[in-house]
Design goal:
six-stranded antiparallel beta sheet, Killer Toxin P4, Chain A, elongated, five-stranded antiparallel beta sheet, binds 2-acetamido-2-deoxy-beta-D-glucopyranose, CRR_secretory_protein, 2 domains, secreted
């Protein structure tokens, strides 16, 4: 009996992490523009469905797609993008979740956006393609502070300069990621990404605004994420981007993360 119980207990703990990973359909956040309420009878409603179907089926193969459907004032524009370092399978399941969830979370809005770590999806009845948008921001901060803010912020600034410069190189498709050793045992990891519809200067502008939140909102925290409609910025003291650094024994678990939404 005891060994059966132990076995069950073993399975319980073994399985639990996978179960919680399966909750990946919970987004990090969404923005449902309350100034764009539409009724089910509106042609925009069915145009959104068309745009979503297209995004979900075609975006994962390249990790990025912009599209539109409809005509005149009812035309709907859509964009879906995965984080540049995730696999096509992860990208595909993320965009599928996004497509499902966004309709449930923002059922009556023509302008809606949804954020995950692995992907971002939005649609609107006004065009936004190629435009920088840093209006609505979602922030995730680790509540713990680093022990040596001065040194940390200097290293963080250097790392950010480096990957922001990488992100605007056309071959990198808006993505910059790297790491730097703070001590023999602590490595700082950071990743930035612009949506791929942005021209170089607009990408740089979005990243500068995102990183501009570091002193105020991220404020020497051990980890921080800035989620905008045009770019994503994140740093952590554990490996979080792919390929995962398996040499680093620091892991994400046990962190207390706080979500902030502005405005
Ligand atoms: C981190 O520092 C901020 C002020 O900069 C403070 O409000 C917060 O409570 C600190 N967090 C912890 C876990 O001590
Ligand atoms: C892990 O450590 C080994 C040996 O020190 C090194 O060759 C390898 O590049 C490291 N991997 C990463 C992802 O840093």
């Amino acid at each position: 009996m005891t060994s059966l119980f132990n076995l069950l207990l073993f399975f319980f703990f073994l399985v639990l992490p996978f179960v919680s990973n399966a909750q990946s359909d919970d987004p990090l956040g969404q923005f449902c523009n309350q100034d764009t309420v539409i009724s089910k009878a509106s042609p925009i409603w069915s145009n959104i469905d068309h745009v979503l179907t297209e995004l979900v089926s075609k975006a994962p193969s390249t990790g990025f797609l912009t599209t539109s459907y409809g005509s005149g004032n009812d035309k709907v524009y859509g964009l879906a993008q995965c984080r540049g370092d995730v696999s096509q399978d992860d990208c595909s399941s993320c965009i599928q979740d996004a497509g499902k969830q966004i309709r449930q979370l923002c059922p009556d809005q023509a302008d809606a956006r949804i954020w995950y770590d692995y992907c971002f999806l939005r649609y609107d009845d006004k065009t936004f393609i190629g435009e920088v948008d840093t209006y609505s921001g979602i922030f995730y901060i680790n509540v713990e502070n680093v022990t040596d803010p001065e040194k940390f912020n200097k290293e963080l600034g250097r790392l950010m300069d480096r990957i922001e410069a990488d992100a605007v190189v056309p071959e990198n498709r808006g993505l910059g990621k790297s790491k730097t050793k703070l001590t023999p045992f602590i490595t700082l990891y950071a990743l930035v990404q612009c949506t791929r519809d942005l021209p170089k200067l607009s990408c740089a502008q979005c990243l500068a605004i995102a990183v501009g939140n570091f002193p105020g909102i991220c404020n020497s925290r051990k980890g921080c994420r800035v989620l905008y409609s045009s770019c994503y910025v994140r740093y952590e003291l554990y490996p979080f981007f792919f390929p995962l650094d398996r040499n680093d024994s620091n892991i994400a678990s046990g962190q207390t993360i706080k979500k902030l939404v502005y405005p």
